[in-house]
Each structure stands twice: as structure tokens, then as C-alpha cells.
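Notes from the 1:1 (GR / supervisor)

We went over the backlog. Supervisor wanted to see one worked example end to end before approving the batch request, so GR pasted a single chain during the call. The sequence is below; no edits were made to it. Supervisor asked that the structure be written out right there so they could see what the output format looks like.
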Amino acid sequence: MTTSENFKVWLETIYISKKTGKSLTSGTQYVTGLNALNKKFNLIGDGIYDINADLDQIRDLIDKDFHKDYSSHFNAFLKFRDYYIERNDKGKRPLQRQVDVFKRQRVEISAVETTIEYFEKLDYIVISKEKDNVGWDLEATNNKETLLLEVKGLSGKVVSIELSSNEYKKSTEFKDKYKLCIVTNALIKPKLEIFSYDYESDNWINSENEKLIIEPRISARMYKE
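Structure output shown during the call:
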């Protein structure tokens, strides 16, 4: 995606408006505003979107010829640039969790980071939903779709996972956009396999047409009288 397309997706997924307390329904107006500034100030190339653009100088130009709407659009873009700079700094990544001594946690962290890296390289914006108990761990969004990613990490090479009742329910409810992202050998040489639901075969399959065998389990509460 281009920078302007990434900016639009960011506005509609991550950005929080001070006025509404929510993300924008559509970021098109903000993109149009920045395009207008590029034209008004005769900025060459990608203008404001250029990674080497002097944003302080552009701010001075806006202040000298003030337009309230354009200023708010530009301020949002500054936050967007800060987000991407921070996201690409591995020491400050917003989704990076502190590694501790327990192997299970290290495996989970490796699996999540591997999955994030994969989808970011495909120009998706990835946000964490791990603490929201929605039935998946990450959401990956571009200008065409939003994918729901359930991430499972394994220290070995054998693909064998368990889904919670909520995760399993959501995987059946949102089959079209739910992805099972399984990372094997997570602590040595992580390998990501992505399983998607295939309606024709009624199976969850990966890119090599390998399928997951599903064994539904029933839990029970047990106690003494």
C-alpha cells in the first residue's frame, strides 16, 4: 500500500478522534485534505507523504496560511508518522511484550511477533486484541479487508493446537476472515503456517493444501457435595 492508503487505514482502525472518542468511519476526507496541502504548497514528489519531507517546514507554511481543517488533518498525519516510527523501532514496538523466564511465554511472544512481521510485510496494519477476549489475538487490516488472526505457538515441529470454546466458536462464526496462524519451532527457527477455512472441502487448510484434523471436546465442571 502507498503511504496515503496506510494513513487512511490507520485513521479507520487505530486513530482516536478527540471529538468522538472513536476511529474515523472514513479517512478519505483527511487524505483529501493532505492532497490539497500538497497542491497548495506545490510540494514535489509525494509531498507530505515523502519519508524525507520536512514536516516542520510544512507546519510553518500551514501556520502562515492557516486552514483549520487542513491543520487537523496534518496533526493526525504527524501522529501517524510517530506511530510508524515507533512501530519500526523493535525496542519500542507497541505490541511487543516483555520476555520473562518461562518457556511458554517466550513461545507465545515469538509466535505473535512472527505473525505480526509476516502480515506487516504484506502491508497490513496489525493491532493486538489479546486482552479483549474476542476470540482471536490480532487484527490485520488493509484497504480491502480485516482478518482475524488466532495465533498459536509451539516449541516443536508437530502441529497440534487447542482452541478455547470462545476461539472455536468465533472460528466457525467468522470463517471467511478467521485465520489460524500456527508457529512451530518458535524458539529456534520459527515457521508460520496459516490455515484458512475452505468451503469446498469443509476443512481448515494451509498453502500446501494440508488440513487440520479437528477433535471437538466437551468440558465439565466437577465438585464434591
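Supervisor's comment: The beta strands are 125-128, 138-141, 146-153, 178-184, 191-198, 203-205.
Batch request approved.
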